[in-house]
Leucine carboxyl methyltransferase 1 (Mycena chlorophos), 323 residues
Amino acid sequence: MADADAAIRLTDTDAALARLSAVQKRYLEDPFVKHLVPRAHLQPPRAPLINIGTFVRTTAIDDLVFRWLQTSASEGTRCQIVSLGAGSDTRFWRIATGAHKDALATYIELDFPEITTKKAMAIRKSKELSAVLKEVKVSHGGTGIASSNYHLLPADIRLPPDAALAHHLPSDILSPILPTLLLFECVLVYMAPESSAAVLRWFVERQTGPLGSIVYEMFRLQDSFGRVMVENLKARNVSLPGAAPYPSMESLPTRFTSVGFSAAQALTLKDIRKSYIPTSELERIAHLELVDEIEELELVLDHYAITWGIRAPPERVWGQWGL
Ligand code: SAM
């Protein structure tokens, strides 16, 4: 179990290196990522297929997050974001210094203590990262960070939420009333489906205001390409118990609707790249690197999906993507 958890934690290094590479190759703009990746300037770039996948995933999730922030602002309120299994993600810094910063009340990140300790150290070491935090204090014996607009919390989110989440998220950290957005970016696939459902149900029951959630993950793992993905991860001691109940596009939204969300929708990265990324952006990235394996790219992107769900009165819509 301990080894399996270490292998799961290592997936954060993959995600961080992919983000760094997409920034180095100018797919994405992110001045913060280099402060969260050790020896960032020495890291070699990743393959073009990985850069494009990271670009599509990040652009799409950013878009959903920004729409959620905009909707909260248009309702005259601010919103809170909780990122579970946040790893070395930089989204908080990008939001808190970006066009929607006034719509953000607080941003909370949870991950295993080994990951949050490293992140807390990187934040303390970097002027660029710590300057964005307001009234910052080290918490949880150095494994966390507390500030008025950002919290970094050490937690295993598989533990029963009434103990783990309730302990870490009292009302003065996470308001039960404000609009709340939950992010699970490549996380739930590593957990048993019952644990993920328990986490979602805990938030559905606790939050009385509008609740949204975005899940990004791999799926379609039964086909031949999917089986190769599973085998590659198995060779690294990573298993994917969370993927089993969501083998198809139709099944993905049930992750939300089965635990009390009112509506949910899913799209593959392949469909998002084709139909939702602005043409101007696709033209821009087409000039960055030579990609001749378009079929392979589409095959990879077809095995990753973004699913988002909302629990809110029917008049609260998410934005042009349909909810
Ligand atoms: N969300 C980040 C991103 O997209 O860059 C990191 C993704 S990484 C693939 C998965 C992260 O989930 C790792 O940081 C890992 O430690 C975290 N994680 C997985 N299972 C977890 C659990 N049970 N409790 C807390 N964190 C977990």
